[in-house]
Specification:
heterodimer; A: about 0% strand; B: mainly alpha; elongated
Chain lengths: ~170, ~150
């Protein structure tokens, strides 16, 4: 079990990321907090010693993926969609005007749980293909191809994608 | 759009996430549809991600829960160890008596072989009982999964 001060430091740095990942997988329902807490609990009770902070974060992401997969298989991922307060957004490379009109949650909801996981880990968290493969329990080559397909699905799920590409070019 | 992912996609995503997609990237993005799509999705998800306020409660609560889980797990392991110790002790006692007593009583080798075969016949059911006890204890001591409260 990692020591308390280190846990608090890792928790402070990454708990929001973990919660957002859970939300992207199962939607912003009442189970998000339960799943995230369970993942942190398993980190404390089951993680091997000697992991770096980055590895600890990956461990929690892997655990979340496994928990959600189990819930999904049992048909237990249910619940109401909850509106989430949005803070002030930061400017990005492009598409600010278009992004306002896009509901990312709905686009993610139209995808399979694995596709959501791949897209979120790659493009929201910035994990490499190798790390994504470790977290999701698939091979690196498969991760690359599945991620590519998941991204295509994500893009096609966003309504008005043609408008998106038109405005960004 | 390309039918295969570009090998530079990870670098493009990292550049967009750092907020500095400058240098050689604009030229590559202009010629690579796949990386352009990756950059747009990254940009979109980064925007969505930073706009979401997310919390999961206090770290103290999770630490307290973990402490309880670890303590309970330790207690169950001790209980299991005690049960296993009792069963193993009983088995050892039985085997010792089966081997030592005939020698003291100076019975024939044939008699000893019979006793040994009897003890082996009893050993297997005893091992099965031990395994069953271990299974039951481990099932009882498992941590309930999410949604099983």
């Amino acid at each position: 079990m990692i020591d308390r001060s280190r846990f608090e430091s890792v928790y402070r740095e990454t708990s929001s990321d973990v919660t957002r990942y859970v939300g992207s997988l199962i939607g912003w329902c009442s189970q998000v907090e339960d799943v995230a807490q369970e993942a942190w609990l398993r980190l404390l009770t089951s993680a091997p010693d000697g992991l770096s902070d980055r590895q600890l974060k990956s461990y929690v992401f892997t655990t979340v993926t496994n928990i959600v997969r189990d819930l999904w298989r049992r048909g237990a991922v249910t619940g109401e969609w909850m509106p989430l307060d949005r803070e002030e957004t930061i400017p990005t490379v492009s598409m600010e005007a278009v992004a306002e009109k896009i509901d990312v949650s709905k686009a993610l909801a139209s995808m399979s749980i694995m596709q959501r996981s791949l897209v979120w880990l790659a493009y929201a968290e910035g994990y490499s293909h190798r790390e994504i493969a470790e977290i999701t329990g698939i091979r690196e080559k498969s991760a690359k191809v599945l991620l590519f397909r998941a991204r295509q699905k994500f893009i096609s799920s966003i309504q008005g994608y043609s408008a998106l590409t038109g405005s960004s070019s | 759009m390309k039918t295969m992912p570009c090998c530079r996609e990870e670098e493009v995503v990292a550049a967009v996430m750092s907020g500095r997609p400058d240098g050689a990237w604009p030229a590559h993005l202009a010629s690579c549809e796949s990386c352009r799509a990756a950059a747009e999705v990254t940009s979109l998800l980064q925007r969505d991600r930073t706009g979401k306020a997310a919390g999961v409660g206090s770290s103290h609560m999770i630490w307290a829960r973990a402490t309880l889980v670890v303590r309970a797990r330790r207690r169950r392991a001790q209980r299991l160890g005690r049960i296993a110790g009792i069963v193993c002790g009983a088995l050892a006692g039985y085997l010792t008596s089966a081997l030592v007593l005939p020698a003291e009583m100076k019975v024939s080798l044939d008699r000893m072989a019979v006793l040994l075969s009897h003890s082996l016949a009893l050993l297997l059911p005893a091992a099965a009982i031990l395994a069953a006890v271990a299974l039951i204890v481990s099932w009882v001591s498992r941590t309930p999964a999410v949604g099983e409260h």
